[in-house]
């Protein structure tokens, strides 16, 4: 497995500085955030070339946005730009394009799944010559209601999107905080995992007891190895299922400068995550 990181942690820094850090720190790969480091589709080629010039594998490019926005104009604008990025990413030879399904609160669950599946199947057909894989991250969204972010949601999507060029950016940290067993969840979708996000979650039982699930402050995202996930078990399971792709560290640990605070602390966090994961992999 390659180990990389998601560049969103350094969205306040020039992309050249980010790739220089990744290379000097010993990372194998990088996952590029559109919002921070590739503003338009015509910038994809240059960004990918810059990363490759530092001997970094570009594992994926990630584009935030609600593909089911209830505002039809916003939805169509986002989908149009998504299709443009998909073509540029395919031309650049990047293997994975990560997007987010979102949700339309004015429509039923079934309508949401049908609509997103139609869009995803269209993207797959339009990029057949490139072979790019589309993946969704199981982030539940700002209101914890995005579709396709739980085992039941994945079943709904995969029933509608049969092509294996549609898969998951599987992030166990989100599952921990919503009460889903990540090991059991991964087993059920092991053949549709395209990339793994390496991020952990810590839970404070006293805070949870005081405020309950629907409040805040009882859980925190952490660097891998600093939360509740058993990474040797998790990565052994992934390897046993045939996964040999990229582990992309998504650093959102407030103890190490996130979000957008002390730069040295953020870099230290990335290095700690890299060292930890390398040690885990060496022992499998």
Count of all domains: 1
Number of helices: 11
**Strand order within the widest sheet?**
1-2-3-4-5-6-7-10
Q: Which CATH C-level class is it?
A: Alpha Beta
- Tell me the β content: 15-25%
Q: Give the CA-CA distance, first to last residue.
A: 12 Å
What does this 3D model show about the protein?
- The chain has 284 residues and is an alpha/beta fold.
- It has one domain (2-282): TIM Barrel.
- It is built from eleven helices and ten strands.
- The strands form two sheets. An eight-stranded parallel β-barrel has the order 1-2-3-4-5-6-7-10, surrounded by four helices. A two-stranded antiparallel sheet has the order 8-9.
- Helix 1 (15-25) links the parallel strand 1 and strand 2 (29-33).
- The longest helix is centred in the first third of the chain and has 21 residues, at 72-92.
- The protein is globular and about 40 Å long.
- The chain starts with a strand and ends with a helix.
């Amino acid at each position: 497995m390659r180990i990389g990181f998601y560049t969103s942690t350094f969205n306040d820094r020039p992309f050249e500085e980010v790739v220089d850090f990744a290379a000097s720190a010993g990372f194998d790969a990088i996952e590029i955030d559109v919002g921070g480091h590739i503003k338009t589709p015509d910038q994809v080629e240059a960004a990918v070339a810059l990363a490759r010039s530092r001997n970094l594998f570009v594992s994926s490019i990630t584009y935030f946005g609600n593909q089911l926005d209830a505002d039809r104009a916003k939805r169509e604008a986002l989908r149009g730009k998504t299709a443009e990025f998909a073509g540029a990413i395919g031309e650049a030879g990047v293997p994975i394009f990560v997007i987010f399904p979102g949700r339309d609160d004015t429509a039923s669950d079934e309508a949401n799944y049908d609509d997103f599946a139609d869009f995803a199947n269209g993207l797959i057909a339009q990029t057949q010559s490139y072979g790019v894989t589309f993946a969704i991250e199981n982030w539940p969204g700002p209101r914890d209601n995005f579709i396709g972010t739980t085992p039941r949601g994945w079943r709904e999507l995969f029933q509608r999107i049969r092509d294996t060029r549609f898969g998951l950016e599987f992030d166990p940290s989100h599952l921990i905080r919503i009460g889903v067993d990540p090991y059991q969840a991964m087993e059920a979708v092991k053949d549709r995992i395209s990339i793994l996000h390496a991020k952990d979650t810590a839970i404070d039982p006293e805070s949870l007891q005081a405020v309950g699930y629907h409040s805040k402050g009882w859980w925190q995202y952490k660097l891998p190895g600093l939360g509740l996930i058993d990474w040797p078990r998790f990565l052994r399971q992934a390897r046993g299922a045939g996964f040999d792709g990229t582990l992309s560290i998504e650093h959102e640990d407030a103890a190490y400068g996130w979000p957008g605070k002390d730069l040295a602390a953020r870099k230290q966090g990335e290095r700690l995550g890299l060292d930890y994961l390398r040690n885990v992999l060496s022992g499998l």
